Amino acid sequence: MKTILLIEDEELLAKMYRDKFERTGFKVLLSRTAEEGIELAKKEKPDLVVLDIILPENDGLFFLRKIRQEKSSIKDVPVIAFSNYDNPDTRKEARQLKVNDYIIKANHDPEEIVSKINKYFDHQ
User: 55 partner at 20 to 30 Å CA-CA among 13, 62, 94, 116?
Assistant: First the structure.
């Protein structure tokens, strides 16, 4: 079973996507902050991170910077940015930090997001 670390601070969205991913057959770890996400990633070594960019305290780019600096295998964990923040500079920095995709939440319904995640694992 593949494990997804979902880093999302909006409780309603976090629960909805956790339930959708679990019904699709994934184990889901849930984090509300970048810091908690970093600790969970180190401890659990997920197969994929679905990362909101706008988070309380430190943002998703902070998570990416920290995770990519790690000396362990988690530095190479695939990350899909998942946000309504569509800023060209942020997208560029996310790409430089080796984000695998940058999905705008408002442009996709939950079924499309799950489908994209499934396709990602199919192409590994």
Answer: 116
